[in-house]
Write a structure and sequence with these properties.
3 domains, 4 strands, mainly alpha
């Protein structure tokens, strides 16, 4: 029961800090709603800004695109399927109803030659007409069921026409040159694989650095705003800046976690997952993630509460400005009790047992720490 009581008190304290400007000045439900909307607006814009900031970098998928990997590294384009694969690649722009945004990102030198030839083929009207005709024949062939494909003579004509179009496609100089380029580049698979490993390792680090550079000025400005608000006893500004400062740490937390997961070899995660799946313990992985997230969140909250939003700091600022240590209102002269909230402004020193100022670091009579 004692544990539940302590937990209830702590939750009540957190609720008060998030819903009150001061202990004696709670926010109205509408004000809390507006603050939450502001938190969400800032959070969404932070994540959107991080995404746009990262677009400046060339990702591994942009530097070594999937088509280049399939052709050079995986070698999935074999003689049996390379015409259909090339057809899908050339016609994909024709099938796209959205505006095509030009790709301006740098590509690996090995992939650059391939994509230069692909770009030329996409502009070749004769080749596109062949692929369009072939695509229609393939759709007609696929419209037949298994029995019709065995018995209907029309199917044989369609297959013959497809074979004839394939021969015409392969006879074009631009296609011949592309196949030669593919064969020559295939010998560089090891080089491309090593370069892919390097960029897969360095890209998350660069992305994290770029995103931290985006978040750092925001966090610094919010921290300075919060510090200035606390010094000048601007309680509403202190409350809002505290909220936004915590919100700004959320993307930073996610970015660090994402960088860690990207940098650590995926094979290690794969082996861990295989082990857990083999023992039917996959739920443990998610429990670990939840526990780590909770511990990191508690760490950030502890740092903020102990180093930034400390009660001692607030009391010291109020004492310097001759304000009530509780409600923060100016006192006309030194009083034992605040006439506005009734809270005592004095406390007894444990060394000399004399009354000293509450919030002071040292006793005004003996010079020692009063508490």
């Amino acid at each position: 029961m004692k544990i539940f009581s302590q937990a209830k008190m702590r939750l009540s304290g957190i609720s008060n800090r998030l819903t009150r400007i001061t202990e004696n000045e709670p926010l109205s439900p509408l004000s809390i709603f507006l603050v939450i909307l502001l938190d969400l607006f800032v959070l969404v814009n932070l994540f959107t800004g991080l995404s746009d900031q990262t677009k400046q970098l060339t990702s591994p998928d942009e530097y070594i695109p999937s088509t280049c990997r399939e052709i050079i590294i995986d070698k999935t384009w074999v003689s049996e399927n390379r015409i259909p694969e090339l057809s899908n690649l050339i016609l994909q722009d024709q099938r796209n109803y959205w505006e095509i945004v030009p790709d301006k990102k740098d590509k690996h030198p090995i992939c650059k030659d391939l994509y230069a030839t692909i770009k030329d083929m996409k502009g070749n009207k004769e080749l596109i007409s062949y692929f369009d005709e072939r695509d229609k024949l393939v759709k007609r062939y696929n419209s037949y069921d298994a029995y019709q494909k065995q018995k209907d003579p029309e199917v044989d004509k369609i297959l013959a026409n497809i074979k004839d179009i394939d021969a015409k496609i392969n006879a074009l100089d631009i296609v011949k040159g592309f196949w030669v380029t593919v064969e020559n580049k295939s010998t560089l698979a090891e080089t491309l694989t090593n370069d892919l490993r390097k960029i897969n390792f360095t890209y998350p680090i660069k992305r994290l650095g770029l995103r931290i550079l985006f978040l750092l000025p925001v966090i610094i400005l919010l921290f300075l705003w919060n510090s200035a608000s606390m010094r000048k006893n601007r309680y509403l500004q202190t409350f809002i800046s505290s909220h936004l400062l915590i919100v700004s740490f959320i993307p930073a937390f996610f970015e660090i976690c994402q960088a860690v997961f990207d940098i650590i070899p995926h094979k290690l995660f794969q082996k861990i997952m295989e082990f857990l799946e083999a023992w039917n313990l996959i739920a443990i992985w998610y429990y670990i993630l939840i526990i780590v997230a909770i511990l990191l969140s508690l760490f950030f909250i502890y740092i903020l509460q102990k180093k930034v939003f400390t009660k001692e700091r607030l009391l010291r600022n109020r004492l310097e400005k001759k304000k009530c240590v509780d409600c923060g209102r100016p006192l006309p002269y030194q009083l034992h009790f605040c006439p506005f909230c009734g809270v005592s402004q004095k406390t007894r020193c444990r060394h000399c047992n004399e009354e000293t100022l509450q919030g002071a670091s040292f006793c005004i009579h003996c010079g020692k720490e009063p508490l």
